Amino acid sequence: MKRWFIPCLLVVAGLLITETAFAHERVVSGQYAFVLGWLEEPPVVGLKNAVTIEVSLDADGAPLTGAEGSLTAQLEFGGQTRELILAPVEDTPGLYLSSFIPTRRGTYTVRLGGIIDGEPIEATAEIEEVGSAASLEFPEAQPAASDLQQSIEGLRGEIGTARAFGVAGAALGAIGLVLAAVSLGRKK
Questions:
Q1: 81 bridge partner residues
Q2: Cβ of 15: how many Cβ atoms within 10 Å?
Q3: Is-contact 49 59, C-beta < 8 A?
């Protein structure tokens, strides 16, 4: 057998075995399983997205419909919380969405609660980290004219500060030379 055959076979097998929703988190509460994640991946600051919640029976994976009436969901980020309004997806039983626009980079936490068929639900999961739009931009965006003007003004201020330090250093050096000359003159 060729040396490359076995590693290639392992990679292909790994890809086939791995779930397709790499960034989704699965949590179980009682007899129910919840898969939490983003509708659009990777999630990007400033772009409309939605939290997805798939609800099913843990034992057989059968999707659960009608959970939007008894399931509550909150989104947490940086000490702030927001109630999520769960909307069922028509063609996909057990799938619920809650749309919003993430405004900050970082990891968001989804908390589920409520009661389904008399069983209390408590589940929490961190979903994939929201990144900046710069990670997806190509080619690199050109800065706006106002941004360039602000950069120029900032550089002018820094040059002025450097010039002031240079003049002060030269003045102190000149004073040092005068003091050295006076000191040498007194010794002779």
A1: 76
A2: 8
A3: no
